[in-house]
């Protein structure tokens, strides 16, 4: 497995704080619900926008 390499800089959407287990759990609950019925084959990044840094 390849490790992730993140760009340098503050995480833009949450003042530099990493996500919590609750953030991930909320996403999993949403994906398991009927509300996500139109989401298929889409990567979902729970990183507070860190992946958007250049």
Give structural notes:
The chain is an all-alpha fold. The protein has 1 helix and no strands. The protein has one helix at residues 21-31. The two termini are 24 Å apart. The mean pLDDT is 78.
How would you summarize the topology of this molecule?
Blueprint: H1 21-31
Task: Give the proportion of residues in helices.
Answer: 10-25%
Radius of gyration: 13 Å
Mean pLDDT score: 78
Number of helices: 1
In terms of DSSP E residues, the strand content is under 5%
The N- and C-terminal alpha carbons lie at a distance of 24 Å
Oligomeric status of the shown chains? single chain
The dominant shape is globular
Reading the helices and strands in chain order gives H
Contiguous low-pLDDT stretches (5 residues minimum) are none
Q: Count all strands and give the number.
A: 0
Class inferred from helices and paired strands: mainly alpha
